[in-house]
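Example record

The entry below shows one chain as it appears in the dataset: sequence first, then structure tokens.
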Amino acid sequence: MSAPGAVVPRRSAPGGTGLLPQLTLALMCAGYATGAAFGWGTRQLALFMGDFGLSFAAAAAAGSCFLHARRCEGGFRPAWLLFGISSTMAAAGNAVWGWYEVVLGRQVPSLSVADFFFLCFAPPAIVGLLVLAKRPVTRARWVCLALDSWLIGGSLLTLSWSLALAHTAHADGESVAGTALALAYPLLDIVLVSMVLALHFRRSSGNRSAINTAIAALALTVLCDALFTSPLLRENYRSGQMLDAGWFAGSLLLAYAPWGVRRTAYTEHDESGSDTDRPVAGSLAALTPYLAAAVCTLGILYNVIEDRSVDRVVLFTGCTVVLALVVRQGIMLLDNMKLTHELAQQENHFRSLVQGSSDVIMIAAPSGVLRYVSPAATGVYGRDADELVGSELASLIHPGDLGRVFHEVRRFLATPPAEEPTTRIECRFKSGSGEWLNVESTINRHQGGLIFNSRDVTERVRLQAQLQHSAEHDPLTDLPNRALFTARVRRALGGRRASDPGTAVLFIDLDGFKAVNDTIGHQAGDELLIQAAHRLAESVRSGDTAARLGGDEFAALILGDGSRDRAARERQVTEIADRLRQTLSQPYRIGEHENVRVAASIGVAFAEEGISPTDLMRNADLAMYRAKSAGKNRVEVYVPQCAEVVRRPGTARLRTVLHDGDLTLLHQPVVHLASGRISAVAAQARWRSAQGILLTPVEFQRFADTGPDADHGDRAAELGRRLLEQAVEKAAERARAGHQVPVAIRMPARRLLDRALPLGSVEALLSRHGLPSGALVIELADSDPRISFDDLERRLTALRKLGVRISLDGFGSGYAAINALRRLPVDVLRLDRTLVEGVVESARLHKITSGLLRIAGDLGLESVADGVDEPEQVTALRSMGCTHGQGMAFSEPLDEYRLRRSLIHGEFPVPGGVALPVLSGRPPVRSNNETPVPPT
């Protein structure tokens, strides 16, 4: 489990400079020092450079600080303003000094305006350093900061008084003003040095490089001031000497500080830096009071050795330093005791949280050895925490997940913490009973190792697997459903077997199954389907797929064997299909009935190069219907002539539908994609031909909506009225039974404007059956360009006043969809199935569908996706904002008996949902009464 540590580089912020400004600064300082060392050539030039040269350098520092203060933002702006004021005082003092020496040609008076400016240099710099200091968070810290400053200042005062200041203070012949002035310079320097030393270890972390450079510039200036106050150097001082080179360098360094130093990515508001981030600085800060006391002691010893007595100033200063040290230590002791108590309370608080948490918290060392395991491991893993401590984490993870976990941990440790502070891993973990639990862990870094916050998600994984299985398998027979079968056909055609012509699809229909339902009941029909599915599953190879597509229709996917002999392969698959036919046609024992017989009609279609899964399954379906029309109980291989079976029946057969009652009404649930709740049912007409072929709405509408003569149009209108009446009648019966579910009926736009369907007849139909408002939804098919939108708008508006909701069908495919949406009163948008079929595979189609759904959401309309046959489509559509779906992913079209059983449950499992209903009892059973036919 160990992985190499990740080193996070500190990135530079924009605005840093290169080496050129630094070289320029060094050359200017070196040039000034060289001139000072050789006396500048002439006395007049030395005076000019020693006075006005220093004035120009200090003015440059002032201008640089003022400009930076104007541009920068945050709490450090006053500090740079104060540094600018301090440099201005220095520039003015040197200018006055140059006025006397260079312009007037005489010595500077002992008391002059220059002394006033020089004395005003230190106070702004001292306050500016205070601004740069990291603000203490407690009063005790403020007091300690003041005491530290006095400890440093008092110690320096003791030492400097013993070395030089005492002689100055007791000098004979000096006036009071002269003595005060002579002492003011070193005392202010001592205060400035104290601030520099105290704040060097307590400065804020914002833009550290600029602050360090500014502190170094002030320190260099103070050092030169201290040398200047020495009596020996002051008596021999002349302008333009080497001492001026130090002041010149200090001013230029201060001018360079805010601009020339490469600034790091820290902001001026970042107060996260602490002494713990800089161990050396933290140690020196802790030693500050002791170092100050040592310096004070040295000053007293020197005074005693020199004069054999202790000066009163030295004694008073030493006492105050000792008192400050005692007070500081007492404050720090109390503060540490308070912090220790708070730390103990926090540790107890977090310890109780960790020990009482239902999640298991584990700390692993870089080597992968567990160093800590929380007590929750006993309840979650069934293993004692002490037993797990010291064991290898790798020994507890399932071998099949170990490689994936190692890869994720290495990737996580190699990623900068700022980019990815945590990661999540799901794997199997060995419990105390030897069972493998599904565990989800959130991982954080911890001192080179890892912290695992783990929880048992076994039940959630099982529920997801159960829901996934329910979404992909038939609830009655537990065979793969149409969605899973289609996915496996697509995989077979797109994988390494794509060029194998031996892959075949078999469509199987049980002949005579309707008679079983009608004679001995639907329960017996369910049992027959279960036995037939069992026979089918046992008859195919392990690598092949047997599925139930719906009703009494089954399918099988026979994978190719790589043979290039197409004729031999066709004979082999045909023999397999014939054995299946014989197996499925054997008598069934169902309860008391021992000799229940059905036959099997099987259609076979072989894969061809470039064929799509939809076309291959359609070909097998057509071959199966050819087998049924040729006498049933036989096997047929697809040939192009199979399509002749389902061509338009014609006007004569339409007349048969109307008079002989071969019309059947099925209903397909419309499901809410978030909850799985059935929100409506879509009525679909079926017509069973003389050959036993059950036509879908597409085939049925093909001959019902078009015809060569007026007689056909009249009969189609009569058929539309009958469908509407049956749908309303069934919806009213369901409402009286307690199933308040709206019914949706698809109707072409020109049928709505037909005089044979007046508005009064719709109103009378709703009143006669007592259908409540909103219980009828008319799905408006894509309108004919010859139809007047004005007339259609008036008709739809009148229908809405009756409580009828309007749905725009086929949205996204017809040329007039957007225009219809703009003009017509619409409540629901139904996405065309051509958009839904490729919404997962096609990125372009995904964007188009997402845009259409966004339009529906902006208009406040419900959206229904038609043809939702796969779980992946449900997940994709829900993420895009689609509210409802209809298709084989939930249910096939159901007869009235099966529909009511589904309405009792009220919900379907939603694939990939966040909050999924757990259905009690048996899941909804799909229809076993009818055989759908795909459109040709």
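Notes for this example: The first strand starts at residue 360 and ends at 364. The two ends are 59 Å apart (CA to CA).
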